[in-house]
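PROTOCOL LOG
Step 1. Enter all chains and additional molecules of the complex.
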Amino acid sequence: MATKAKMNGANALLESLERQGVKHVFGIIGGAILPVYDALCTHPRIRHILARHEQGAAHAADGYARASGRPGVCFATSGPGATNLVTGIANAYMDSSPIIALTGQVPSVAKNSSYVIGRDAFQEADIIGITTPITKYNCQISTVAEIPSTVNTAFYIATTGRPGPVVIDFPKNIQADTANVEFTSHIDIRGYNPTINPHPLQIRKAAECIADAERPVILAGGGVITSNATDELLTVAELLLAPVATTFMGKGAFPEIHPLSIGCIGMHGNPLANKLLLEADVLLAVGTRFGDRATGNLDTFCPEAKKIHIDIDAAEIGKNVDVDIPIVADAKKALSALYERLIKQAKRKPDNPWMKRVKEAKAQLNPPNENKEFKPKSLLQTLRKLLSDSAIVTTEVGQNQMWAALYFKALKPRTFISSGGLGTMGFGFPAAIGAKTACPERTVVDIAGDGSFIMTEQELACSVIEDIPVTVIVLNNSVLGMVAQWQRMFYKKRYIATKLGTYPDFVKLAESYGAQGFRVTTIPEFQKAVQTAIKSKVTTVIDVPISMEEDVVPMIPPGCGLNQQVGDY
Amino acid sequence: MENQNKKTSVIAALVENKPGVLHSVANMFRRRGYNIESITVGHTEQKGITRMTITVSGDEKTLEQITKQMNKLIDVIKVNQLEPEAIVTRELALVKISVPDVKSRSDIINCVEVFRGRVVDVSPESLMVEITGTPDKLDAFFNLMKTYGIMELARTGLTALSRGVKSIKIDE
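Step 2. Run joint prediction.
Step 3. Record the structure below.
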């Protein structure tokens, strides 16, 4: 396996990336990473996509990873380039997304110069120190020879166990240094050994517990998508006849048009999910960290239910919610093991009282929408009909995101991509570019708000010039809508710092970047614009002006439990 | 909230001996709001492996989380929460005591002998004492010395090993 060659650090890095199967890199060039970029000239198999801000590059790598399941890679120079990545790295960390961020660094050694690490050199920032709490792992390269093993280790750590971002800091002198480099696939990390296989005893206990349940509910989190366990989830759910709720991050883990689907739980969850979850006598939670936005007040979060918790990260078990049967394992492995156990049990009858209750609750709480008003609900339901099942949707953060969670039904894993943990405004658009790069044959749409979109709107240039066409649907209410909603509901309508006005003109903005822009004011116009955008294969911004008074309801007021939801679906 | 269930616990961790590891461990404690009461770090008999002995306080749940969060750090190889009943703990201190008169000098030296310490430096106005033991014993000694005046005090923090054959080791 091992091959040896004399080369400089920059080439050793790119060679190592190629060996990892990297085909795309998002980034921005700068002084301290110039040797690496220079080496890109002789590595045509790696396509570099020039972002317009490093945050965009990091989010694009994140979107790439979530859409494809393969790690996303981004490059930035030292100092401000590296610190501009920080939001993107923190975002990937919170949502367990595997990205590799390579940052240039000022030289580690320099003769007769203070352009060197530790001397407050030009564009020096301690990116290792800065990113320690927001990365799964980070490291600084100190010799050319170690580059292959460092890169292998980075990819291995980022993509296995609970995935997460890894930062590699690369001093400029080592990029230029030459050495004999040996390429091996050997990895040895003695402090890292994720538990993949579930403990058979725990599986047996879980199977017994849930087989005896009268009102079982499954709660699927993002971990189900990460471990590609959606098929296993479906078979377990159908065998148990258990309704499946998801967390926001779990959207797409279970087809939301399936009879057993009850939607997302949480602050802006589907009332059906929030209600039935609380009626469960056994809760099977898979690949979720029981985040605060999902559970609401913990005192009222299924206090009576027996809880089984499957997660690959042992530290998530018992962190927020006490559980009865913990299972540390990969979701796919655990669900198949559970299925093998459960298949031996007596089959449930489809007309059991719990199924009747689920059906009845669904009819009551999720009635079909006959309304065709020009409002987010109808717009997003219309959008669902216009897109194929495998089309990828990203969202920004705020009202647009919660409307999408409520009304845009995700049918397949990795087709609903959003910033769940960090809540990063400006994530959706560059993430859409990343997703489209990974899946060029599929339609990619960013469901946006005006406030979020303008935070990374400069990536229109990247999308147009690099020919990575995506469609941005701006639900434009001219305010920072989610915060304005809180001001309306909890701060006596004192609107401070939330009014954005009607700027920019999104049609003109799109056109100024060479993209196409539409403004629509009726549902048929909206349909036509979306269809045109998809067909044209041109980056498109669709401005959809909506009322600034529009609230996201239902909602659980902050501090309240899932049983205290107000407003109708 | 659950402060009444707080207990002090000793965590022993074997970690990679490389730059940044102490930072990532300390940073995890800070970021998650755990408090380090003392930490000692030193090489082990195994090459490239450092042992950290960390004294922390918290309820059962917090201590479990600390262990799990430490285990999550890539450069942390092994973590053990030591059983308080089955360990030997020691701390070393150097203390400089002021000596007001000749009589005090002999009184101090008597005390040092009772506590099985050693006088390691003498000047006309001071004595430096090396003392080893459990933190409680050290506290008792320092309390006694306050009457003479403690000029300077350096404690290493607690270190600990399990009794018997039980040991934390990495298979090579």
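Step 4. Note key features.
Chain A has three domains: 3-183, 200-365, 376-549.
Chain A touches chain B at residues 128-129, 132-133, 136-137, 139, 157, 189-192, 313-315, 318-319 (CB under 8 Å).
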